[in-house]
């Protein structure tokens, strides 16, 4: 018996997803499966996907498909955080790290998943509380300076032990998934998503110590805004979700295995080499 009875869709807000949706609907019709989507997303496309609210789609879907890029995949993962539902990412445009296939591979991949011919790559999330609201990120949580308002002065305390104070443009707390995003641009290490770790990276640090920290997933890390700091934006997977002022603090904890990403063949290292254009030194060839 096939695995997929109901497919949930999450769409990129701007990219053209009509071809991908039509492919999914044709495949589902041949299998007697149902396709669900969020009303505000499938409503802008002429298709027969059933519009339901987010809670119903999360509850009913056997497979969730994110159509877009890494941003759409991150949104899909946050939507399903804590649930075992597998998530398939489909590229609509630029190559990403999280999306697994292109549109022309979609029908074949759905059949493979339906026949249980796939693997799962668990992805860790991180969590914090901002202004009384719980926030979940699969890439990173960053304290970012406000232009014209001074540097980000932040003390970093892992597992209750004060370690370092940074003066920087931003202090980034990232997952292994996020090691190829903002953290990477700030000089952080590339970390396999199979490693459940918390990275702390300062962007453009104005200090003699500018190294990244790699912490185990069972250690929380507290960031405190120093008296010398300006007002800082709290970015959660790239979206500003609040602000902190001197004296405020934020504690980040890991959530291992918070989402399950479908893999049908590619490896993290293949994706990283293509996306980051990793070639190495010319002298090594």
From TrEMBL:
The active site is at residue 70. NAD(+) binds at residues 70-71, 75, 139-140, 169, 180-185, 204. Its cofactor is a divalent metal cation. Keywords: ATP-binding, Cytoplasm, Kinase, NAD, NADP, Nucleotide-binding, Transferase. Pfam families: NAD_kinase, NAD_kinase_C. It comes from the Bacteria. It is found in: Cytoplasm. Its EC number is 2.7.1.23. The keyword Cytoplasm applies. One of its GO terms (biological process) is NAD+ metabolic process. GO terms for molecular function: ATP binding; metal ion binding; NAD binding; NAD+ kinase activity. Involved in the regulation of the intracellular balance of NAD and NADP, and is a key enzyme in the biosynthesis of NADP. Catalyzes specifically the phosphorylation on 2'-hydroxyl of the adenosine moiety of NAD to yield NADP. Belongs to the NAD kinase family. HAMAP family: NAD_kinase. This is NAD kinase. It comes from Nonomuraea fuscirosea. The lineage of its organism: Bacteria, Bacillati, Actinomycetota, Actinomycetes, Streptosporangiales.
């Amino acid at each position: 018996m096939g695995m997929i009875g109901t497919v949930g869709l999450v769409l990129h807000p701007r990219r053209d997803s009509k071809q991908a949706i039509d492919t999914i609907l044709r495949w589902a019709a041949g299998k007697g499966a149902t396709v669900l989507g969020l009303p505000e997303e499938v409503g802008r496309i002429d298709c027969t996907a059933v519009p339901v609210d987010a809670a119903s789609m999360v509850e009913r879907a056997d497979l969730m498909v994110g159509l877009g890029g890494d941003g759409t995949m991150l949104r899909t993962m946050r939507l399903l955080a804590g649930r075992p539902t597998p998530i398939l990412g489909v590229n609509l445009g630029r190559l990403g790290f999280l999306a697994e296939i292109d549109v022309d591979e979609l029908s074949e991949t759905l059949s493979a998943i339906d026949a249980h011919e796939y693997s799962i790559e668990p992805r860790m999330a991180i969590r914090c509380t901002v202004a009384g609201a719980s926030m979940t990120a699969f890439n990173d949580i960053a304290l970012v300076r406000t232009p014209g308002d001074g540097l980000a002065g932040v003390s970093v305390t892992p597992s209750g032990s004060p370690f370092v104070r940074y003066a920087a443009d931003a202090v980034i707390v990232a997952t292994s998934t996020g090691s190829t995003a903002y953290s990477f641009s700030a000089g952080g290490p590339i970390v396999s998503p199979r490693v459940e770790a918390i990275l702390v990276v300062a962007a453009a640090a104005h200090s003699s110590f500018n190294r990244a920290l790699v912490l185990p997933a069972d250690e929380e890390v507290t960031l405190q805004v120093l008296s010398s700091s300006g007002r800082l934006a709290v970015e959660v997977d790239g979206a500003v979700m609040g602000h902190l002022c001197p004296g405020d603090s934020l504690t980040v904890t890991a959530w291992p295995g918070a989402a399950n990403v479908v893999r049908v063949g590619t490896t993290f290292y293949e994706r990283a080499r293509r996306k980051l254009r990793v070639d190495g030194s010319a002298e090594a060839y």
